[in-house]
Design goal:
There is one protein chain. This protein is an alpha/beta fold. It has a single domain, classed as Alpha-Beta Barrel (TIM Barrel), CATH 3.20.20. It is 45% helix and 12% strand. The strands form two sheets. Strands 2, 3, 4, 5, 6, 7, 8 and 9 form an eight-stranded parallel beta sheet that branches. The protein binds 5'-deoxyadenosine (5AD), iron/sulfur cluster (SF4) and FE2/S2 (inorganic) cluster. Iron/sulfur cluster (SF4) binds next to loops.
Length: 360
Amino acid sequence: MSVEFDDILLRQDLDADDIKVLLSAKGPRMEALLRRSLDVKLSHLDNYVHLRGLIEFGNDCEKNCLYCGLRSGNAKVRRYCLSDEEVLSCARLAHEFGYGSVALQAGERSDSEFITRIERLVREIKKIDGGSLGVTLSLGEQQEETYRRWFEAGAHRYLLRIESSDEDLYYKIHPHNDRHSFRRRVDCLEILKRIGYQTGTGVMVGLPFQTLDHLAADLLFFKRMDVAMLGLGPYVPHPDTPLYQFKEIIPSPAERMELTLKMIAVARLMMPEINMVAATANQTIDPQGREKAIAAGANVIMPNLTPGEYRESYFIYPDKACVKDEPDQCGRCLDIRLAAIGHKILYNAWGDSLAFLKKS
Ligand code: 5AD
Ligand code: SF4
Ligand code: FES
């Protein structure tokens, strides 16, 4: 291994060229990268994994992202929305299982009924056992005032993936119109941070037209935005979406998995104390995908709490993991899977981002 490569591995301050060297690593070099990022994680965050019980509470979406199965243009999806009682019973289940936090995710909606409903649900979730559950929201782009109302109701983390930090690539994977504005998305991230949310972003890895230059720029964007959380997962082509036509020009599933792991690893070198989720999409591509992501530097898993009957309708991408499982199976399954790679779940804790806590 070259002196230069070894030297890059030891640094936290990386430029685009350094990052591309790391993202190109194969064989023993890639193994050295993954070993190093695991070391960095363990020394900053120990071997704990935090859980967020994921509640996918509705799949109606106003947007039309070219990669996503829930896009408004896909007439094949059966649209659903959980009732308040269903959402709250998922949250109670999360508390019962000791998950510590829930993540509310849905397609993007901006009507006032939806906004008020989320505010009410967050307040109700915060009443469970005296506010013992942490609440993450992943509900897309909203007005500043909406973000504020939800924050005041008790949500303290928000995930909004940038999907690509390169404006040109952004518009290759989204329609080019007012409803899908790259600028607005960046603004939303700024607003979320300003309000005081632990703010998370991320990208899909292995998109058509995406190069190592794009991915290096994404990592530098995350660092510049000083985010508290990251979600990086492989792109999975969905047959009922426009981007599917490019499935022949994207890397193979094994290559997308490797590239995702390298992205996670480099992100960990650059941002040792952020929270990073081992996305479920990893498991779609590789049965051991989430464990591999944890071993590469991720420290958060989002077990699905959505009631079984709805899970098949939340097909952002095909072959999502755990679709046939009931909620209580995931916890036990994860204990075993994580113990096998020397990690343990920290139950009954919010598991906030250390990077964020140190700043505030
Ligand atoms: N493959 C992988 N991830 C996807 N997402 C949407 N569609 C896909 C896909 N086809 C991700 C996006 C979005 C999150 C909710 O799901 O990154 O932010
Ligand atoms: Fe809607 Fe999100 Fe899918 Fe885009 S990625 S179509 S905003 S659910
Ligand atoms: Fe859901 Fe294994 S994590 S069944």
